[in-house]
Amino acid sequence: MTGAAQGIGLGIARTMAAASYNLLLTDVERDLVRAEAASIASDGGRAIGEPLDVTRAEDWARAVEQAVAQWGGIDVLVNCAGISPRGTIESTDEALWDRTLSINLKGAWLGIKAAMPTLRDRRGTIVNIGSVRATRPMPGLFSYVVSKAGLWGLTQQVAVECLDIGVSCNMVAPGWVDTPNERQIQARHGRPDFPAGLRNLTTPEEVGAAVLYLASEPARKITGSILYLDSGLHVADDAGMVHLPDRSRPPYEQRFD
Q: What one-character-per-residue DSSP string does 237-252 give?
């Protein structure tokens, strides 16, 4: 499991630990991921934490090797590592574009590729943590939206290629999730009170419950699907959740009348 040191990834890890999964928690924040894995273990879970830069194939090879040595293989691969920078077409520079796509999209592909032999052997499950923005774009999230749309495409392509080997691949698409990183991002962009005033926020533990379902036996025939976990945000683009700093501007759906 990637991005497991905090936020959504940690919520998923705690939920899966409570369901008696053996966990390899990974994150680029090496000290934090090891501390959180130790915390889960002290509460009775079975977890180890290791550093992992999802953009490096050699890191993935090491992580998969460790999971096989420690737990015998991988039954569920959860790709959760990601960043959500703000920026438009013009304000996004090449370095930010490359970094976002590398972490949010390339990282998931490298993980799936590295883990595929053991996933094939165990008829495992891949769950990619995407976003409602994969299919419902929002101004000001240029590289993030493109990366999550790409992750949705990756999810479907992997599902198609794995139909004959029994490996399922799906994507969970949360709406707005209250995490420490999101609070920092919102504060930098003029919303230090986030998430005050917003309704229907998704919790990291709810994302964890969705992952558990997709990894369960009743979900074995679900593959190539997107599971929205957004209280309807993907069909009603505000749904009481979205903060737009410039409220004098009408919602973008109305500006093309």
A: S-TTT---S-TTSPPG
